[in-house]
Amino acid sequence: MRNLLISFKSIAAVCIALLIGALYACNAPSGNSADDKAGSVDTALIAKGKISFEKNCVTCHNFRQDGIGPQLSGITGKVSAKWLHAFIKDPAEMIASGDQYAVQLHQKYKAMMPPFTAMEDGEIDAIIAFLATEKSTAVSAGSDSAVIKDPFPEKIPLSGIEIGLQSFVQVPASAPAAPKARITKLTFQPGTNDLFVVDLRGILYKIVNNKPEVYMDMAKLKPHFMREPGLGVGFGSFAFHPEFQKNGLLYTIHTETAGAAIADFRYHDSIKIASQGVLTEWKVTDPKANAFSGTGRELLRVNMVSDIHGVQEATFNPYAKPHDPDYGLLYVGIGDGGSVEHGFPMFPHNTRNIWGTVIRIDPRGNNSKNGQYGIPADNPFVHAADTATLREIYSYGFRNPHRITWTRDRKMLVFNIGQHDIESIYDVKPGNDNGWPLREGNFLINPYSDINKIYALPADDSADHITYPVAAYDHDEGKAISGGYEYTGSIPLLKGKIIFGDIAKGRIFYIEGKSIKQGALASIQELSLTVNGKPQTLAKACGNERVEVRLGENAKGELYVLTKADGKIYKITNAKKLK
Questions:
Q1: Which residues have C-beta within 8 Å of that of residue 243, sequence separation ≥ 6?
Q2: By the 8 A CB rule, do 329 and 369 touch?
Q3: What is the pLDDT of residues 460-494, one digit of tens each?
Q4: What is the mean pLDDT of residues 424-443?
Q5: What is the average per-residue pLDDT within 196-223?
Q6: What is the pLDDT of residue 348?
Q7: Which of 18, 414, 444, 576 has its CA 20 to 30 A from that of 174?
Q8: 10 Å Cβ neighbour count for 54?
Q9: In whole angstroms, what is the distance from residue 270 CA to residue 273 CA?
Q10: Are strands 158-170 and 525-531 parallel, antiparallel or unpaired?
């Protein structure tokens, strides 16, 4: 707190109080029309709407800060219920019709809300009735002369390299509309090198003869499994133990409903919990089988204040060999749970708390507080003087460290999804403080005011001992960084490049692995694409502006591109320099 206050002395006119102000443009459609049902006092209807809002909307919206979409406090005083109803039903149609306000929102947030055409009119009316109870309490956008409007004015250039994507697998649809299959991670099983891919909605597939077969159904294994809403919940990640063929150990991350069990890491009793992130160790009966059978053992459980930025990643260092200190140790990426944007900025950036961290544990040990896993003796905070420090923590100060990878020269890279401005990659060292929520990327923010404003770093910044990204881009270029990998496959032109993408836009980028250096930002370049031999963007290929792209890797270092919008997996098969 002391450092935060010192940092903000140099910024005039930063207001820590919450200001009541209008989010929407003055020409937004009026909320005072005769058709407006938003003023309902039907408590049952409002309760129904709250449940539906928390199920379908909180991934992108809250009532304090703009997120992927606008914050919604006071919305029913700005627009009519009829307009809201039509927009919720089919935003793309509203935009295509030329509705001025719908077009403005699309231009501002650079994202398309999914349609809810299957939702019954009564449920939409209930959501609108609930929205009417949330009066305008949002943090004001304000006009601060110190605010940085465009963090990186220079655009990401095309690299002059074109990569070819070839259709590989079509994953079965788990929903009727985009995203049809929420495929988020593809990796290989040690020993057999078989490929596996997970759908957040609950299915882990094994790729058998280039076809996906159901390997594990989380909903059948965990009765409290939570697959909705959206970005931060579901079957989030999986990792096979390096000795899986011998010990049959598989690790998974999934989300459960609030209160499903007592969490190992929890908030104060007065704070409402939205979900729980769970790490499980599974003992597989037959490691070579095409379908899972076995038993599970819970390692840890974390309460989350919202349904975003939960427990996101579980992975082993693929370069660690037997007798290496890192061999068999599990890294787990844990987001801030949306705590900062929901008004609880004290939880991340604190080594007494689990949120906003990457932890490193020995899943075969038992010296943790709950006795279900081990804390390695060489973890950076094992000998901390403060007895409340969590010895599990390897690095902290993240918003959403949703993917972790390593390079051949043993750099550990964490891909961190940002708030309003910055998407970033960190070269993580033991004990690093990566800044959130005092920083977003290489910029200063005030977590007690408007976290959608960023500022230049203060003159005495070095006193805060914060580690900054080695690569970053702003929201002129995309909305959320995907995970990525150093390419180590058979295509010479791509070797040594760290290839990643933007989730929403579906653009594919890279940085040179040799350019990664602490204290400097590597140059990001964009790769041109052909899809099944045809030059086109992934947005065009999948027929959806919001692509939801992820990357995967096989045992030989070849990379795959996953598009959630249509549930397709492509393999990168070639690359060439463009003339």
A1: 190, 249, 328
A2: no
A3: 999 899 999 999 999 999 999 999 999 999 999 99
A4: 96
A5: 97
A6: 83
A7: 414
A8: 17
A9: 9
A10: parallel
Report the share of the chain in percent with pLDDT over 90. 66
Report the Cα 112 to chain-centroid distance in Å.
Answer: 17
Q: Which CATH number does the domain 158-432+467-577 belong to among 2.10.260.10, 3.90.78.10, 2.120.10.30, 3.30.200.20?
A: 2.120.10.30
Residue 111 CA to residue 106 CA, distance in Å, equals 6
Tell me the C-alpha distance between 86 and 98, whole Å. Answer: 13
The burial class, CB within 10 Å (0-12 / 13-18 / 19+), for 497 is buried
Tokens read off for 43: 């408590």
Q: Name the one residue in this structure whose structure tokens are 């502006």.
A: 545
**What sign results for the dihedral spanned by CA atoms 38, 41, 47, 50?**
positive
Q: Which CATH architecture has domain 20-131?
A: Orthogonal Bundle (1.10)
Using CA atoms, how far residue 328 sits from 188, 402, 555, in Å, is 16, 20, 18
Is the bond into 229 cis (omega within 30 degrees of 0)? Answer: yes
The arithmetic mean of pLDDT across residues 34-63, rounded, is 72
The separation between the first and the last C-alpha atoms of the chain, rounded to the nearest angstrom, is 54
**DSSP state, 362?**
B
- Structural domain boundaries of the chain? 20-131, 158-432+467-577
Question: What single letter denotes the amino acid at residue 375?
Answer: I
Q: What is the average pLDDT value for the chain, to the nearest integer? A: 88
Mean pLDDT of 520-548: 96
Q: What are the structure tokens assigned to 445, written together?
A: 């923010």
pTM equals 0.82
Rounded CA gap, 416 and 400, in Å?
5
**Nearest CA among 73, 60, 59, 78 for reference residue 18:** 73
